[in-house]
């Protein structure tokens, strides 16, 4: 296949129009905002994931560090630390498990659109020419790996279960007595709701629930599940951003508590 | 309310020319209340430019003939109201960029007809007589959405896979025809498999689904508001993943086939 | 000597709408090499604009339905002027034609038990219209288009050439039907002469069978729901080839077209709005249709709003609302309300579905109406009423054909199907009967065209002489150098201006309500316009030149318009799509009279190009007459006919 880019003016008998695009609106705004939003998260998350500190403030554990699978993990009573990795792991324990939710989001159909458009400029916006000479899409390594989204979905569901467990643990006070709530509990509850909504609204989930079927009427329960997931799926982009923000906020909240910058207001 | 004194003169820049050469030409045309771009183009034809080539037909957004790019965005001229634009704005109208130009705003959309021929047709179920077809509404609804397509080819025009890379036209069917594959694969009575035709495999191997990077411009420009990406292309990617990229499903199929 | 390229096919179909494609599919399935010539791109034909559905008595929703009931409704709708054999074939065969579409991949809306759902429509006694939301025509065209492609794929497998046995010449226009002997009106058809829009190149197709499936004539009227293609090409081609047209005085004005904004005036608002519960009100908020139920329909329609509203849920014990009267009745009623000063602000009446159905239901059942009003008029039909008024929609008249074979009268090898054929719908077509007409008679035309061609050996095929091609070419290029004769009014004419004047004249003088003096005036104007059209001049070259295309279409529009005006002036009664202010009643004596329109070069006193003939409509078979009550028959048939029973 040819890899040479065609000249912009009139390739293959096309109308000779010199401009890369003729759009007058601020088409660059959306990709620019995406770059800013994603970069901010990446910078923050990298700092926090490598910090290996201030991720636990009873009863809250940062979602970045859950589950915590190394011996070096902070002690969290009943918390999600299972030292499967033993004591040889010297790096931040966040790095062990974070790859899964990261992979889920990297292969997510919405995030793919977002980074293809904003980071790759492929295309930067509709009807705005992309700067690349050749394009093979997701037909080759590495982007063909994006087809593994469904496995990351299964993994993300496991992570979401663990985060749900963490959220249940937040209904304790700092002395581990049950039946209490703090501002953090609210925050964690909102977070886990968004994480579940985002995870379940995923296109792979929609496919697994019922999208793969040829006939819905023969599988009424899966059809209902598919209908529900489809409805959520319509908000996939919004949920992707909201859950990303709530994850970062939950972590920041724990950080502020752990560094004593703030004390958790107790509701009861 | 029937005030016609709301007429004004609009400034238009219309691409004129053919495959050899061409460029934007300036016009000033009268515009009346409620008019769309196509009305104004027709007024140009009836007055200043009688040989201005434009393809149109129903003028009601139903046939999909009058696609063009207005201020750089693919649209149907008959459904783009002049009230979208400021009265003192200059509106640029160019032919669809992805296809060879015939003349002025008319392009040769033959690419699409070639691709249509490459999609294997509906395979009627064997042993079911005409009149005996039974399908539930919920079973036909997915494919019905795709059959709303009026074949205006705006999605084919805007898709960067072919718009920016002429060389991909060979391998890539484009959103409209990938959607056609989805329509057939989701048709409750399509019996392709009985004929040894695996649409889920073919969509990647023969029609270039892998080129799609789901950047959703097809959905953005669709005048019928069909959710091409979410409802057709991504489900097809998932169905293709079942076939080509899922070792568990692959293994399961292998075992099941052996049992049968 | 002409240098026009010639190619040879077995069957040529002119037009790629529902009838044309169905004919082509049939001819190709019979093994004949079939060419389709169409003015637009493949799949863009006017059929896509049909919204409501395909009428076919499948009885999926109400098992009481059957072809006899459909036949009876069709005759009532056409005020007994329908060709009874055509109406019978149509009613009998429509279900098979719909089911066949499913085997080609069509996806109709479904009933609860998984069959094809059917909806109510004006003039149909039972829910009868197979539909897909309000885009049934699109489904029909796409299905036929995909069937054509499927056949081409078969041919490709066999021969390596998709177009070996079925080829679509898209964006090509036929300007002449070629004859074996141009001077003899009754000689055999030999092919067609065409130009290609893209290049302006001329070419001829030699073929012993030509099927006309070109649709209607609406572009001769100012307010119309028809697209630019509807310039009466097939009607004019048939006339010029020596075949007569029938029933041309009957033009259907659809009661509900958009009236505002001006640029979309005439665009169709589907009858399904009323079928699904929409009601018509005047500016005083009155459901005025109850005031306009004519005597002949009194038995079948609700007497008050309460009964009408009950009918939607209990159709067996209540009569249908008068909003669902045949289209001619509703159009006249709206016209009368507006004239009486009870119209809406933009000169229509209100069609309201917003207070009748929940918003979600409206969006599901009428998605394209919702979209159309939102986009073009800033009206949300789930919240407010639409403003609607009559718009020129359909011509009942057309090429006079044999009911069984769709062969045009008097010209061997010429066939016509769909809107371009006349007789089937009588004086007024019921909604939904057009799509079924396309399929039933499209198939028949294709079948018999194929049989005619197959019966001829190569040596027996008619051949047009080169002189005909040269004449056709000279006629087609004339607008680039129109004849200059000395005189005051000899200046070149702008085809756009002539077209506008024609539309205005037809709209004002031969429109929904007609008067003898106005039609005489129309004929005078048409004759003058025809002389001017001969001097229509265009700039530029032949490559995709819309001005040139229009200049060529003018000949057709003017011929057909004259037929309409002449026949309408002749018929001194009101019936169906023909309403005379000066003869307001229906006259039983006219019931059996068909007016035929023929080309006439002798130039009559008023400079006309066509002349009229009267012919008796065939009698209705006794077994079909038995489907009606004597009382009802007495309203339509002449006394002798009733006596003869």
From TrEMBL, chain A:
<feature type="transmembrane region" description="Helical">
    <location>
        <begin position="88"/>
        <end position="111"/>
    </location>
</feature>
<keyword id="KW-1133">Transmembrane helix</keyword>
<feature type="transmembrane region" description="Helical">
    <location>
        <begin position="238"/>
        <end position="258"/>
    </location>
</feature>
<feature type="transmembrane region" description="Helical">
    <location>
        <begin position="177"/>
        <end position="199"/>
    </location>
</feature>
<keyword id="KW-0472">Membrane</keyword>
<feature type="transmembrane region" description="Helical">
    <location>
        <begin position="27"/>
        <end position="47"/>
    </location>
</feature>
<feature type="transmembrane region" description="Helical">
    <location>
        <begin position="151"/>
        <end position="171"/>
    </location>
</feature>
<protein>
    <recommendedName>
        <fullName>Succinate dehydrogenase</fullName>
    </recommendedName>
</protein>
<keyword id="KW-0812">Transmembrane</keyword>
From TrEMBL, chain B:
<dbReference type="InterPro" id="IPR009051">
    <property type="entry name" value="Helical_ferredxn"/>
</dbReference>
<keyword id="KW-0560">Oxidoreductase</keyword>
<dbReference type="InterPro" id="IPR012675">
    <property type="entry name" value="Beta-grasp_dom_sf"/>
</dbReference>
<dbReference type="InterPro" id="IPR006058">
    <property type="entry name" value="2Fe2S_fd_BS"/>
</dbReference>
<keyword id="KW-0004">4Fe-4S</keyword>
<dbReference type="GO" id="GO:0016491">
    <property type="term" value="F:oxidoreductase activity"/>
</dbReference>
<dbReference type="GO" id="GO:0009055">
    <property type="term" value="F:electron transfer activity"/>
</dbReference>
<keyword id="KW-0001">2Fe-2S</keyword>
<protein>
    <submittedName>
        <fullName>Succinate dehydrogenase/fumarate reductase iron-sulfur subunit</fullName>
    </submittedName>
</protein>
<dbReference type="GO" id="GO:0051537">
    <property type="term" value="F:2 iron, 2 sulfur cluster binding"/>
</dbReference>
<comment type="pathway">
    <text>Carbohydrate metabolism; tricarboxylic acid cycle.</text>
</comment>
<dbReference type="GO" id="GO:0051539">
    <property type="term" value="F:4 iron, 4 sulfur cluster binding"/>
</dbReference>
<keyword id="KW-0408">Iron</keyword>
<dbReference type="InterPro" id="IPR050573">
    <property type="entry name" value="SDH/FRD_Iron-Sulfur"/>
</dbReference>
<dbReference type="GO" id="GO:0046872">
    <property type="term" value="F:metal ion binding"/>
</dbReference>
TrEMBL record, chain C:
<dbReference type="Pfam" id="PF00890">
    <property type="entry name" value="FAD_binding_2"/>
</dbReference>
<dbReference type="InterPro" id="IPR027477">
    <property type="entry name" value="Succ_DH/fumarate_Rdtase_cat_sf"/>
</dbReference>
<dbReference type="GO" id="GO:0033765">
    <property type="term" value="F:steroid dehydrogenase activity, acting on the CH-CH group of donors"/>
</dbReference>
<dbReference type="InterPro" id="IPR036188">
    <property type="entry name" value="FAD/NAD-bd_sf"/>
</dbReference>
<feature type="domain" description="FAD-dependent oxidoreductase 2 FAD-binding">
    <location>
        <begin position="10"/>
        <end position="435"/>
    </location>
</feature>
<keyword id="KW-0285">Flavoprotein</keyword>
<dbReference type="InterPro" id="IPR003953">
    <property type="entry name" value="FAD-dep_OxRdtase_2_FAD-bd"/>
</dbReference>
<keyword id="KW-0560">Oxidoreductase</keyword>
<dbReference type="InterPro" id="IPR030664">
    <property type="entry name" value="SdhA/FrdA/AprA"/>
</dbReference>
<dbReference type="InterPro" id="IPR037099">
    <property type="entry name" value="Fum_R/Succ_DH_flav-like_C_sf"/>
</dbReference>
<protein>
    <submittedName>
        <fullName>Fumarate reductase/succinate dehydrogenase flavoprotein subunit</fullName>
    </submittedName>
</protein>
<feature type="domain" description="Fumarate reductase/succinate dehydrogenase flavoprotein-like C-terminal">
    <location>
        <begin position="499"/>
        <end position="597"/>
    </location>
</feature>
<dbReference type="Pfam" id="PF02910">
    <property type="entry name" value="Succ_DH_flav_C"/>
</dbReference>
<keyword id="KW-0274">FAD</keyword>
<dbReference type="InterPro" id="IPR015939">
    <property type="entry name" value="Fum_Rdtase/Succ_DH_flav-like_C"/>
</dbReference>
């Amino acid at each position: 296949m040819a890899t040479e880019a065609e000249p912009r003016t009139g390739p293959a008998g096309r109308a000779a129009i010199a401009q890369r695009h003729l759009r007058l609106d601020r088409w660059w705004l959306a990709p620019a905002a995406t770059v800013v939003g994603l970069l901010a998260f990446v910078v923050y998350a990298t700092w926090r994931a490598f910090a290996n500190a201030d991720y636990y403030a009873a009863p809250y554990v940062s979602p970045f560090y859950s589950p915590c699978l190394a011996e070096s993990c902070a002690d969290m009573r009943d918390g999600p630390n299972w030292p499967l990795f033993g004591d040889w792991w010297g790096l931040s324990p966040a790095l062990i498990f974070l790859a899964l939710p990261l992979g889920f989001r990297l292969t997510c159909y919405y995030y793919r659109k977002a980074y293809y458009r904003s980071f790759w400029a492929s295309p930067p916006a509709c009807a705005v020419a992309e700067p690349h000479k050749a394009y093979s899409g997701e037909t080759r390594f590495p982007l063909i790996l994006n087809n593994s989204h469904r496995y990351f979905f299964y993994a993300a569901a496991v992570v979401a279960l663990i985060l749900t467990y963490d959220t249940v643990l937040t209904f304790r006070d700092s002395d581990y007595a049950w039946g209490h709530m703090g501002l953090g509990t609210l925050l964690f509850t909102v977070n886990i709701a968004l994480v579940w909504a985002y995870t379940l609204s995923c296109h792979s989930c929609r496919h697994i629930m019922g999208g793969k079927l040829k006939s819905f009427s023969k599988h009424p329960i899966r059809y209902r599940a598919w209908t529900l997931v489809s409805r959520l799926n319509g908000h996939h982009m919004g949920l992707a951003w909201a859950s990303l923000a709530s994850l970062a906020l939950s972590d920041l909240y724990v950080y502020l508590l752990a560094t004593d910058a703030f004390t958790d207001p107790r509701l009861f | 309310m029937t005030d016609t004194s709301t007429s004004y003169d609009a400034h238009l820049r219309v691409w004129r020319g053919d495959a050899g050469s061409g460029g934007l030409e300036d016009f000033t045309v009268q515009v009346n209340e409620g008019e769309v771009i196509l009305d104004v183009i027709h007024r140009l034809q009836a007055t200043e430019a009688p040989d201005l080539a434009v393809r149109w037909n129903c003028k009601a957004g139903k046939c999909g003939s009058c696609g063009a790019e207005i201020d750089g965005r693919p649209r149907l001229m008959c459904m783009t109201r002049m009230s979208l634009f400021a009265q003192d704005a200059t509106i640029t109208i160019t032919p669809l960029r992805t296809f060879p130009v015939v003349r002025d705003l008319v392009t040769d959309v033959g690419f699409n007809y070639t691709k249509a021929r490459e999609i294997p047709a509906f395979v009627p179920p064997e042993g079911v007589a005409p009149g005996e077809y039974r399908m539930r509404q919920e079973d036909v609804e997915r494919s019905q959405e795709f059959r709303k397509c009026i074949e205006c080819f705006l999605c084919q025009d805007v898709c960067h896979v072919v718009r920016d890379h002429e060389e991909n036209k060979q391998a890539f069917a484009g959103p409209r025809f990938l959607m056609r594959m989805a329509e057939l694969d989701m048709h409750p009575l399509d019996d392709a498999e009985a004929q040894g035709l695996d649409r889920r495999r073919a969509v990647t191997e023969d029609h270039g689904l892998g080129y799609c990077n789901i950047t959703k411009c097809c959905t953005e420009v669709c005048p019928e508001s069909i959710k091409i990406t979410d409802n057709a292309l991504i489900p097809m990617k998932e169905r293709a993943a079942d076939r080509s990229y899922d070792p568990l499903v692959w293994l399961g199929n292998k075992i099941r086939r052996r049992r049968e | 000597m002409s240098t026009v390229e010639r190619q040879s096919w077995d069957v040529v179909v002119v037009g790629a709408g529902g009838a044309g494609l169905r004919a082509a599919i049939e001819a190709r399935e019979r093994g004949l090499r079939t060419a389709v010539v169409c003015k637009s791109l493949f799949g863009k034909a006017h059929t896509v604009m049909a919204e409501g559905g395909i009428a076919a008595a499948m009885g999926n929703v109400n098992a009481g339905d059957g072809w006899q009931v459909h036949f009876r409704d069709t005759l009532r709708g056409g005020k007994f002027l329908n060709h009874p054999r055509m109406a019978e074939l149509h009613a009998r065969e429509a279900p098979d034609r719909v089911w066949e579409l499913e085997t080609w991949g069509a996806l109709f809306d479904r009933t609860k038990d998984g069959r094809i759902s059917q909806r109510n429509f004006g003039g149909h006694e039972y829910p009868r219209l197979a539909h897909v939301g309000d885009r049934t025509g699109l489904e029909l065209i796409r299905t036929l288009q995909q069937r054509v492609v499927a056949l081409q794929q078969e041919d490709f497998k066999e021969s390596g050439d998709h177009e070996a046995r079925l080829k679509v010449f898209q964006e090509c226009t036929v300007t002449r039907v070629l004859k074996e002997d141009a001077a003899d009106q009754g000689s055999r058809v030999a092919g067609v002469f065409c130009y290609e829009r893209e290049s302006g190149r001329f070419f001829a197709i030699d073929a012993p069978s030509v099927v006309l499936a070109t649709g209607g004539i609406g572009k001769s009227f100012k307010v119309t729901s028809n697209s630019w293609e509807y310039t009466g090409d097939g009607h004019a081609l048939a006339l010029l080839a020596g075949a007569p047209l029938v029933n041309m005085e009957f033009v259907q004005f659809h009661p509900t077209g958009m009236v505002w904004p001006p640029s979309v005036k005439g665009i169709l608002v589907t009858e399904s709005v009323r079928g699904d519960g929409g009601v018509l009100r005047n500016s005083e908020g009155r459901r005025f249709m109850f005031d306009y139920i004519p005597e002949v329909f009194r038995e079948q329609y609700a007497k008050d709003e309460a009964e009408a509203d009950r009918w939607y849920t209990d159709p067996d014990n209540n009569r249908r609302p008068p909003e669902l009267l045949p289209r001619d009745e509703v159009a006249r009623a709206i016209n009368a309300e507006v004239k009486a000063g009870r119209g809406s602000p933009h000169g229509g009446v209100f069609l309201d579905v917003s207070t009748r159905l929940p918003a979600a239901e409206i969006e599901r059942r009428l998605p394209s109406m919702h979209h159309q009003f939102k986009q073009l008029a800033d009206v949300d039909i789930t919240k407010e009423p639409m403003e609607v008024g009559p718009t020129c929609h359909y011509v009942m008249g057309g090429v006079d054909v044999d009911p069984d074979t769709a062969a045009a009268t008097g010209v061997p090898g010429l066939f016509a199907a769909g809107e371009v054929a006349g007789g089937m719908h009588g004086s007024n077509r019921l909604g939904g009967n057009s799509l079924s007409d396309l399929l039933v008679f499209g198939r028949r035309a294709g079948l018999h065209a194929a049989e005619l061609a197959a019966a001829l050996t190569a040596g027996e095929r008619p051949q047009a002489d080169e002189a005909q091609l040269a004449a056709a070419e000279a006629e087609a290029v004339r607008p680039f150098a129109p004849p200059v004769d000395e005189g005051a009014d000899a200046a070149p004419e702008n085809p756009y201006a002539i077209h506008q004047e024609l539309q205005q004249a037809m709209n004002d003088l031969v429109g929904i309500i007609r008067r003898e003096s106005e039609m005489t005036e129309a004929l005078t104007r048409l004759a003058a316009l025809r002389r001017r059209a001969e001097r229509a001049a265009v700039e530029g070259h032949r490559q995709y030149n819309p001005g040139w295309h229009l200049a060529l279409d003018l000949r057709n529009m003017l011929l057909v318009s004259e037929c309409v005006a002449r026949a309408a002036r002749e018929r001194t009664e009101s019936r169906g799509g023909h309403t005379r202010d000066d003869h307001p009643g229906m006259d039983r004596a006219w019931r059996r009279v068909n007016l035929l329109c023929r080309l006439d070069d002798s130039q009559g006193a008023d400079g006309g190009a066509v002349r009229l003939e009267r012919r008796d409509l065939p009698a209705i078979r006794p077994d079909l007459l038995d489907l009606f009550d004597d009382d009802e028959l007495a309203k339509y048939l002449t006394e002798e006919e009733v006596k003869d029973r």
